[in-house]
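assembly run, all chains below
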Amino acid sequence: MSDSGNEDGVYNGVDEEYEDPNDADISAEDAWEVINAYFDEHGLVRQQLQSYNEFVSVTMQRLVDESPDIVLIPEDQYVPGRDAPDENTKVVIKFGQLRVSKPNFTENNGEAGTLYPNQARLRNLTYSTPLYCDVTKTTVRLVDPETGEEEATSEEPEKVFIGRVPVMLRSRFCLLHNLNEFELNSLGECHVDQGGYFIINGSEKVLLAQERMSNNHVFVFQKPPGNKYSFVAEMRSEADVGNRPASSLAVRMLSRSASATAAGATGGGQYITATLPYIRAEIPIVIVFRALGFDNDQEVVAHIVYDFEDEQMMGLLMPSIEQAAVIQSQDVALDYIGKRGNTVAVTRAKRIQYAKDILNKEFLPHVGVGESNELRKGFFFGYVIHRLLRVALGRQPEDDRDHYGNKRVDLAGPLLALLFRQCFRRMTKEAKMSMQRAMDAGKEVSLHGGHIKSDVITKGLKFPLATGNWSSDRKAGGKTGVSQVLNRITFASTLSHLRRINSPIGREGKLAKPRQLHNTHWGMVCPAETPEGQACGLVKNLALMASVTVGSPAEPVQEFLNEYNVENLFETSPINIPISAKVFLNGNWVGIQRDPRGFMSTLRGLRRKSIIDTEVSAVMDHTNREIRIWCDGGRLCRPLFLVEERPEGSPTTDENGVPLPARLMVRKRHIALLQETDMRRKERTVMEAPDEDDNFKDYTFPEMVKSGLIEYVDVEEEESIMISMRLVDLANQSASAAAAYTHCEIHPAMILGVCASIIPFPDHNQSPRNTYQSAMGKQAMGVYISSFASRMDTMAHVLYYPQAPLVTTRAMRYLKFRALPSGINAVVAIACYSGYNQEDSVIMSQSGIDRGLFRSVYFRSFAESETRRLGAAKETIERPNVRECTAVKPGTYDKLDEDGLVCEGTRISGGDVLVGKTQVLPPPPGLTVPEGDAGSGAPAPPPAAGLGLKTRRDLSTSAKTTESGVVDRVMVAANEGGARFVKVRLRSVRKPQVGDKFSSRHGQKGTVGMTYRQEDMPFTVEGIIPDIIVNPHAIPSRMTIGQLIECLQGKLASICGIEADATPFMDTTVADIANSLHGTGYHPHGWEVMYNGHTGRPLEAQIFIGPTYYQRLKHMVDDKIHSRATGPVTMLTRQPLEGRARGGGLRFGEMERDCMVSHGAASFCKERLMDVSDRHRVHVCDVCGLIAVADLKKNVFSCRGCNNKTDISQVYMPYACKLLFQELMAMNIAPRMMV
Amino acid sequence: MGKRKKATKPAPKAKAPKLDTCFDCILCEHEQCVDAVLLRSQKVGSVECRVCHVRHEMTITALDEPIDVYSNWVDEMVKVNGGEE
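ok done. output:
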């Protein structure tokens, strides 16, 4: 609603005279200014764009830098007469700086030009940019073999084209980046669309964020009784450099029964073992310590238990120490491990070396991969066991798999990086092979000699994006469904699709846990928006203000740690651990800190000053005495207001003992700056010129984050802070320090996702109804994009007269719902009238429909091209001569123009041909090809012309038999291969009719059961008739109170001429609305006396009536209606086909059959199952009972085997039965029909 | 309702490899012909080639497994031959 009146606090404040108005606290209304600023800056697909930008500008280069150089050493080919090559000269190929160009496309004729996205969409091209790499060729000559002195001569780096990278729309590398509204519109783009997707072969593809468990996190789980193990600690360790896959480590405590039978059992106690990478057996933990160089048991215990007073934990560890008593030295331990690896039958020295390599490179690589990491790995390994023991002792609960702090989300960036790594490796490998071959053949190795194949990267990135099978190798598996076709039904569905998260867990899994809403989802994942059924809870959607970290380098944080007295593990003794906090950086234990409080406040201070990246999270875990700092990518985080910290020792209450209110860092002056920035920006767009006076610097959301007013907090950190829900809670906070707020929600409505933000008053609905609406909002028709006229989507619905809702939520502003709405404010009465709105059907006003209510248009496009398939004859788009074509379509060819295409404006009915296309048939065998008349120069007639034979095959495209319309647009172009390419768009107008589906915004869907003209509709005293009458029975059991409030508020809004606010978690009450409505002269509860349209008599009850926003859903009877008499049958069984599109039959299934059986209607059953389906006549030999030969033309019947020509019976049976008998006969079983 | 089965079944997960109990003979070079026998009660472990009947024994500890006895034999042989490398 209006924002005047709400600005108390400042001007009506009591302490006005003492307070600087600029320093005053912000009001609830001001919080929305901040939210506006957030979305102005970030839009709704920032996670996608950020992730992609990071990939192209940073990750790709890093992957190239980390890949090894190509080293070519000439090999002797032993060719007689040729000298052996100089083995002291080698060629080194180094890949350096990557460069990307602008998205472009090279036509078949060699003409190159920039490619704009809409061109790519229309012509089925891929929107991608060429990628170049500076490649340096260095020739290294060994000058002196004694000293190893080398002489290297480098050539100038050459720019080599290495492949094409698909470009994400509106990313920094897209041509549309930073274009204004007018420029976008002139390029056929929608200015409201925010990008975040790719265009691959003309279709828009989204990369769904993929959820996974976090790496470098130690998880301890308790196993159910009866298991071999009682407790397990697991982790996947991944080094941040080095480009290697994560390696897993498991430490397990055996159960009592398993321990008793274990190797080296001494009775009593449970053993602890570890599973190391590439080692085939479990290794007792103490042996691992020994192998790391921990010689005595005391040292080992110190690194696990830390505190020698802790007898419980020591007791639990004792059996494991005793078990390993036989192995006392490092070499013996290494040998013990080495023997259990892949080194069988080699010498001891080799085994020891192998074990050393495993411990250095594969064991806990995130701690370090070189030598000299033994001590730190020992500390970490000890920590893992410590955690395990704590859980085993019941001092700590087991870890929660579903805690969202333990999850990471991979967006476009990491997903593409995975592909790029594979492709680049393959490309260099192939290049090396090819170059080596050239070198061995005695040729000069050239960078442009076709050795570096650009196709590897081009196809390796394009194929997974096109199919969703996430692997650069076509055959190899990988995840499926990662890339999907962008949903373009309505704009909200598009936005929601771009913010979707997928958890790759089997859909069949019965386990409910991973599907449930977790406490940690608050503010990160929408609580309402998830599909129903198999994927329920596995597919999630980001909350509006949630973002995903892209990852920042750990070095700045590491530097800070070094400066701030974090004792390095090399320098400290384990005795110090219990008296200080452990510090972890990205899961790696880097040291201990004796002053965790001071440390944390400094660290937070630096982050709030943005000296350390603002997306770094710092968690103080008091119970475990741990400080965890994360700066990896894929964490979900969200912004929160910061509460001003009180100086140490300052009073928390005033002199009367009343608690002093906590205050936010954000003040009125910041809000004023935001408002001014917003105003200036608007002026700038109008005047199209920067304003002159300028000391004024735009004040934006990132500015607020940088200056420490707002902070990004991730899921793990969220648990270590105190967040007040509302601004007013801060003022009322209790004096106790334990309840001191550190942060404040910006607004609780931001916990919802895109689709749930469209629901008015969702906080008044039963929760599943919000979930239902979140699913239905995606099927609502509206204007799915403003540029729909310049697009050729395969299917598209557009609503004729869409309206912005009367009752809105604040969040709709960011969803651009006013610009691209998907419904109409219909006058809805909740009433029983004539009985035609029972069981979720509604009555609709025919007069309204006639005036255009819910009228929509349906576009359908067909694409056709002259593309030639390998080995097949050329295809031609032309008007086919039906007489010389085979496989002619049933529809009419008359609507085709000379060029084989229908004309725009032609009316098309079911089955009509839209694009004529033919292909030359190979001449039938044995036909001589007549020679063309060489003298006259006339072309040779087609081989079979004039013989009445078919010379061409018809490949035309026709409209679906059930669909009709008008040709809206015909587009002719050339596709990627330069072949003629056409798209034809049909348009058909759909008026609402009985059977069409509609829904309110509260999960209340229904179909039209009847339409009445206005004279038959009930009316109020004012002569208002409802557009829609829904049945009152739809309300009580579903408890969608939100719809009732929406209706009431809509009524008030329409009377007052305002737009009403229905944002959740605000202070609006029903009583307020009722009072205002009463004030305008209406019944406070929206009831009206109504009169029967047929009789003019008042209805017995007063009717609840008012405007409610209704959506027209894409399911319409005309697309579903189906019936059949006789029609096509399947070839094999001769039973009717299935499905409407093929003119199939209606299945008389098992349940229908059961019904007839129980009814005793045997004849009817037989009629349905045989006579009307696949009745077939068979002749049976009366002697042997097998099928006889029947020549119906000559009326001769015979059974060859029995030599019987007289005793033949005629039997009717289903064709499927006959088929079965023949199949049985084929496998030597004789089904005899004894008639 | 019965769902349609996917045409390509996912490849079965590779099982964690177990330790061998049967080895190649380093003397007669036959494959998988050396069996290990551990008599834990007597703390004696032995390996014997089924083909050339070479036999090796050692005292074992509770933690030793067939591979340890075999490796011990390999080490012995290397020592006897004056140590490779």
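The longest helix of chain B spans residues 66-80.

Strands of chain B lie at 22-23, 34-39, 44-49, 55-59.

not gonna interpret more than that til we talk
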